[in-house]
From TrEMBL:
UniProt keywords, alphabetically: Amino-acid biosynthesis, Aminotransferase, Histidine biosynthesis, Pyridoxal phosphate, Transferase
Species the sequence originates in: Candidatus Pantoea edessiphila
All copies of domain Aminotransferase class I/classII large, residue ranges: 46-351
GO biological process per UniProt: L-histidine biosynthetic process
EC nos: 2.6.1.9
Name by which UniProt lists this protein: Histidinol-phosphate aminotransferase
Lineage: Bacteria, Pseudomonadati, Pseudomonadota, Gammaproteobacteria, Enterobacterales
Record-stated family: Belongs to the class-II pyridoxal-phosphate-dependent aminotransferase family. Histidinol-phosphate aminotransferase subfamily.
HAMAP family in the cross-refs: HisC_aminotrans_2
Alphabetical list of SUPFAM superfamilies matching this protein: PLP-dependent transferases
Pathway involvement of the protein, from the record: Amino-acid biosynthesis; L-histidine biosynthesis; L-histidine from 5-phospho-alpha-D-ribose 1-diphosphate: step 7/9
Catalytic activity from the UniProt record: L-histidinol phosphate + 2-oxoglutarate = 3-(imidazol-4-yl)-2-oxopropyl phosphate + L-glutamate
């Protein structure tokens, strides 16, 4: 075989795929990274486990127990994965028949729902949001044919808004006993009073996604959690890889979930939310800014008069933001992760020169 023809061996889905444009893949030579919604300060950990000749537990008990404690659930309602990204995919692999079933999501929203469906070969149906990113519940209700899973991001990435609780109740009602509702709470620590964890008890078709990548400042660790009814968890356990949680991952995650470190995280979140208010106010005063959208999360979506110019100007100054211009309904928008106060000040100073 001529090895240049290797593409002929790849699946059609893969040849047609536009891969997820992660912030890391997009690159840039910055000193101020505000494009991946990472936490701006690092927490220091030491490995306590020194030997690794043995395989890890599939679901390390102490880590799971601590997360359960943190989330006010039982251990049998928790599943750990390699980040929420693996969780998104694991749910599709477990519940959707390739080539037959559909997932549904409501753009503009997190890009991995679509990319994962395309890779696995599951159909997707799009019901765009209306009136600045509210769910079109009626259209969702009319489009549930062959849909197995709905993905809702709350607070939503990249817009920062929070779908109202009433819409969630409506969704739970129209999906009951036929469709799974996945609520991605990757950013919930920034508005923790809005978590839907309490609804798990009476809504067995609700699944909540969590991660240590954002508020816990552990994006490099790759650790996420699925919160759901034990029957759902048991099905997912049949499909997950044999050893999804490496020993160093559970070691550090277990430490991050200690009582003291959770309090530390909560204090860091408070400080970041203060920075967010400051950044929001300052952005509204910049001449190049057209509109600033309120955010319940650790990033702010901003519409500029000329976003391409702003993006490039800041990029050249080493301040890396996330361009959302090509995202449905987000023309001329950039997303700015809230950094340290100093980083926020650099952004504003640069924008004032424009
Ligand atoms: C960052 C992010 C994720 C991915 O989290 P990981 O745990 O790092 O894989 C999932 N969902 C949303 C909405 C995110 O923004």
């Amino acid at each position: 075989m001529n090895f240049n023809m290797i593409k002929n061996l790849a699946r059609k889905n893969v040849n047609n795929l536009v891969p997820y444009q992660s912030a890391r893949r997009l690159g840039g030579k910055g000193h101020i990274w505000l494009n991946a919604n990472e936490f701006p300060i690092s927490v220091h950990f030491e490995l306590s486990q020194k030997t690794m000749n043995r395989y890890p537990e599939c679901q390390p008990k102490l880590m799971i127990a601590r997360y359960a404690d943190y989330a006010n659930l039982n251990s049998d309602q928790i599943l750990a994965s390699r980040g929420a990204d693996e969780a998104i995919e694991l749910i599709m692999k477990t519940f959707c028949e390739p080539g037959k079933d559909f997932i549904l999501f409501c753009p503009p929203t997190y890009g991995m729902y679509k990319v994962s469906a395309e890779i696995i070969g599951i159909n997707y149906r799009i019901v765009p949001t209306i009136n600045n990113w509210q769910l079109n519940i009626q259209s969702i209700a009319e489009n549930l044919n062959h849909v197995k899973v709905i993905y809702i991001c709350r607070p939503n990435n990249p817009t920062g808004n929070l779908i109202p609780l009433n819409d969630i109740y409506n969704l739970l009602e129209i999906t009951a006993s036929k469709v799974l509702l996945v609520v991605d709470e990757a950013y919930i620590e920034f508005c923790i009073q809005s978590t839907l964890v309490k609804l798990l008890k009476n809504h067995k078709h609700l699944i909540i996604l969590r991660t240590l990548s954002k508020a816990f400042a552990l994006a490099g660790l790759r650790c996420g959690f699925i919160l759901a009814d034990n029957k759902v968890i048991n099905l997912l356990l049949k499909v997950i890889t044999p050893y999804p949680v490496a020993i160093p991952v559970s070691d550090i995650a277990t430490q991050a979930l200690s009582k003291e470190n959770i309090i530390l995280m909560q204090n860091n979140v408070k400080q970041l939310n203060i920075n967010k208010v400051w950044l929001f106010t300052q952005l509204t005063l910049c001449n190049c800014v057209k509109e600033v959208f309120t955010s319940e999360s650790n990033y702010i979506l901003v519409r500029f008069e000329n976003s391409a110019k702003v993006f490039k100007y800041l990029w050249n100054k080493g301040i890396i933001l996330r361009d959302q211009d090509k995202n449905l309904g987000l023309e001329k928008c950039l997303r700015i992760s809230v950094g340290t106060r100093q980083e926020c000040e650099h952004v504003i100073t640069a924008l004032q020169d424009l």
